[in-house]
Amino acid sequence: MISDNAIAGAAIFILMILGANFLMYAIARGWAKGGDVRWIDALKQGLTKPMESQRNKSMEELREKMEKLEKTSEKKE
Asked: Which residues are within 8 A (CB) of 27 and not within 5 positions of it... i.e. 6 or more apart?
């Protein structure tokens, strides 16, 4: 009753799930071992690097102004 296309689709889906699980297992195992794998470091740096947005730029400007004010107040004392 079940068509051959449905069975083939289910088999492909199951193989995709198993492949993804194996890939995640391999990445986690390599990460836990602490091997010299450069692509994991590149991925980690890419994900943790903050995006340069207008908000970050304005906060950096504010931080610089506050440092200047603190320096001038120290000089006056």
From this structure: 40
Look at phi and psi of residue 52 and say left if phi exceeds 0, alpha if psi is from -120 to 50, else beta: beta
Does residue 43 sit in the same domain as residue 30? no
Q: Are 26 and 37 in contact (CB under 8 A)?
A: no
| 75 in the same domain as 45 | yes
Residues 18-68: tens digit of each pLDDT: 999 998 988 887 777 666 667 667 677 666 666 666 667 788 888 899 999
Alpha-carbon distance 43 to 45, whole Å?
A: 6
Q: What is the pTM of this model?
A: 0.40
